[in-house]
Amino acid sequence: MKITLQLEELAMLGISIFVFLGMAYHWWLYPAFILAPDLSMLGYLINTRVGAISYNLFHHKGIALLLFATGMYFLNEELIFSGIILFGHSSMDRILGYGLKYPDSFHHTHLGWIGKNKD
């Protein structure tokens, strides 16, 4: 099942790239900004609860799609760009096993524990 989920996320990453390339952006902006959502991890400098909230806000695909749809509706290029980047980044993270965070630990995600197995 893990491989099936990773392939699904790979397809979603591909869709984000495909949509991005169909827009009027320079191609190099995608790789330049694809890691930007990880700045949300700075919330962990405060504590794990704030870190999980900020991380999840920038890694939730529903929020990414809402930004994209809102940008399309209002013809706002910044929202469209942000939605595409957040969606692609979230898919990339999930391919690598990084899911949405629980507030108890950075390593505790909706996909399981990151790193060594937690007993």
- Read across the widest sheet, the strand sequence of neighbours is 1-2-3
**Helix run count:** 5
Helix content: 55-70%
Order of helices and strands: HHHHHEEE
Main beta sheet: strand number and arrangement? Answer: 3 strands, antiparallel
Number of strands: 3
Strand content: 5-15%
Q: What distance lies between the first and last C-alpha atoms, to the nearest angstrom?
A: 21 Å
How does the helix and strand content classify structurally?
mainly alpha
* Average pLDDT figure: 95
Q: What's the Cα radius of gyration?
A: 15 Å
What is the gist of this entry?
The protein is built from five helices and three strands; from the N terminus they run αααααβββ. It has helices at 2-22, 29-33, 48-58, 61-74, 77-95, and strands at residues 101-102, 105-109, 112-113.
Notes on the structure:
Helix 1 (2-22) packs antiparallel against helix 5 (77-95) and helix 4 packs antiparallel against helix 5. The protein is 59% helix and 8% strand. The chain is built from five helices and three strands. It has helices spanning 2-22, 29-33, 48-58, 61-74, 77-95, and strands at 101-102, 105-109, 112-113. The protein has 119 residues and is mainly α.
Task: Give the topology, please.
Elements: H1 2-22, H2 29-33, H3 48-58, H4 61-74, H5 77-95, E1 101-102, E2 105-109, E3 112-113
Antiparallel strand pairs: 1-2, 2-3
